[in-house]
Write a structure and sequence with these properties.
alpha/beta; Lyase, Ornithine Decarboxylase, Chain A, domain 1; TIM Barrel; eight-stranded parallel β-barrel; 18 strands; 24% strand; elongated; binds pyridoxal-5'-phosphate
Length: 379
């Protein structure tokens, strides 16, 4: 039995299921991969903590020298409480209240605002504070449209077409020191990221006072074995060239979320029953979309392995949960034969897993465990 299978089974036995398991070493390895890929750029990484905001995960991020990107007041509070300096937190809210803005600005946290409709308020109450603008570059991507955030129909960002409005407010005294965009989270190729970056860099020529340009994320991970990861080297090369011909000196920021934590996390579930339907077999596990919503909400593929049965033979199942409606982790999935009591590992669940979980049907939330070296602890 592979070493990690034995460890995961031990965790399932000792802690119980369902349980999220995160591997510290994998997070560090992913951080280092990004650092290596962009080493020839003047860049900073801000972990998009929405992907997984557990304090123990944030501590790993902090220890490795990254900042964070927060999307809500409570995320800011969490980052501060873990020890992030306010200067290393950027705040990129969607449709925030004025009270939310007040909280962040009073803490000296840099704001990326995504609508010109906030300008009057900001100018009136924070005339001395330089802000960042989240721009919508009008980039269409081929991936999942629920997480495509830079096209014309998206609620996110200030449309590039509103440049005249921005210029009017700059004349009135609005201080802008950064531009931001996020193309989406299911970007199939680096070319889509490059198209967005090209639009933003062109747009940025209108601003002489920029400290940085934030290109968001879009660093896809391999969910399906046939998926390809974003070609980071090609993207980095493109950016290096683009920055050479850019007329101002700016830093680049990136906001990776799932790239850092997704593959480091798994959800372990126990098989309650294997049942025969009319024409298919169901594996019913002690979890559901209330614990991991990605398969149902995004039609996301998550690889599943039967830790309790290492045999190579496979059978076809739908892997389903305990909820009162369609609640399927995988359709027509080949697994090594499953029996009641078997522990299944749902892979690649470290991002947008526990953080999107709920108590639906009054089920309890899974436990969470961190593996550090050869040891693990409940977190
Ligand atoms: C503004 C912003 N930055 C970064 C991210 C992180 O994206 P990902 O998890 O795909 O890296 C998101 C995701 O929604 C986002 O909205």
């Amino acid at each position: 039995m592979p070493q990690d299978t034995a460890l995961y089974l031990q965790i399932a036995n000792q802690i119980g299921t369902p349980v999220y398991v995160y591997e510290q070493a994998k997070i560090v390895e992913r951080i280092n991969r990004l650092k290596e890929a962009f080493k020839n750029l003047p860049f900073q990484l801000h972990y998009a903590m929405k992907a997984n905001e557990h304090p123990e995960i944030l501590k790993i991020i902090l220890k490795n020298g990254l900042g964070v990107d927060a999307v809500s007041v409570n995320e800011i509070k969490q980052a501060l409480s873990v020890g992030f300096d306010h200067k290393d937190i950027i705040y990129t809210p969607s449709c925030p209240s004025k009270k939310d803005l007040d909280f962040a600005l009073a803490k000296g946290i840099h704001l990326h605002i995504g609508a010109t409709e906030y300008f009057d308020y900001l100018l009136q109450h924070y005339p001395q504070t330089a802000i960042g603008l989240r721009i919508n570059p009008d980039t269409h991507i081929a991936g999942n449209q629920k997480i495509a955030t830079a096209h014309q129909g998206s609620k996110f960002g200030i449309p590039v077409s509103q440049l005249p409005v921005i210029k009017k407010y700059i004349k009135a005294g609005l201080k802008i020191d950064s531009l931001h965009l996020h193309t989406g989270s299911d970007v199939k190729t680096w070319h889509d990221l490059a198209r967005s970056a090209e639009v933003l860099l062109d747009f940025a020529q209108n601003f002489s006072s920029l400290k940085y340009i934030d290109l968001g994320s879009g660093f896809k991970v391999k969910y399906h074995p046939n998926d390809t990861e974003i070609d980071l080297q090609a993207y980095a090369k493109f950016l290096q060239k683009a920055l050479k011909s850019f007329k101002y000196d700016v830093q680049i920021k990136f906001e990776p979320g799932k790239f850092l934590v997704s593959e480091a996390g798994s959800l372990l579930v126990k098989t309650n029953i294997v049942k025969q339907g009319f024409y298919k077999k169901f594996v019913g596990v002690n979890s559901g979309f209330h614990h991991l919503i990605r398969p149902m909400y995004y039609n996301a593929y998550h690889h599943i392995t039967n830790l309790s049965n290492p045999s190579a033979a496979t059978e076809k199942y739908d892997v389903v949960g305990v909820l009162c409606e369609e609640d399927t982790f995988a359709y027509n999935r080949f697994l090594s034969p499953v029996k009641a009591g078997d522990i299944l590992r749902i892979h690649n669940a470290g991002a947008y897993g526990y953080v999107m979980a709920s108590h639906y049907n009054l089920h309890i939330l899974p436990a969470q465990v961190l593996i550090e070296g050869n040891t693990f602890r409940k977190i």
